[in-house]
Amino acid sequence: MITRPLSASILRLPLLALAGLLAACSYFSQTPEPDVVSRVHREVPIGLDFEEATARLSSLNFSCGPFKRGAYTDESGRDHEDARFMQCTKRPAKISFACENRDQVVLLPGAGGTVAGVEVTRGPDCQSR
Asked: Among candidates 99, 102, 112, 107, which has minimal Cα distance to 68?
């Protein structure tokens, strides 16, 4: 019986697959990247006009929907059951899944059409495209 040593390329395949899986895990993360959170808070300060806020979020690649009343989760993980807010979701990449975790921004309305609160989270987005 002749035995040959496994080639190095065959041994590398499992390591490459493992590296790919580890990289994909961040794609399904439930926490937004800290730089995304700080950039959104820097670009959309409390007191900013809502039209300007949505324009700035659009330049950061977010799409904002209309105001709605319902539940949202803030950055600290607390649920707010009956609130009026606008939700903005990071636009999908050219290649994306039908249902995936995306960065989301909740804008809370204040007096005179200004922003009273900004919450940056990450969660499932399963909207029809």
From this structure: 107
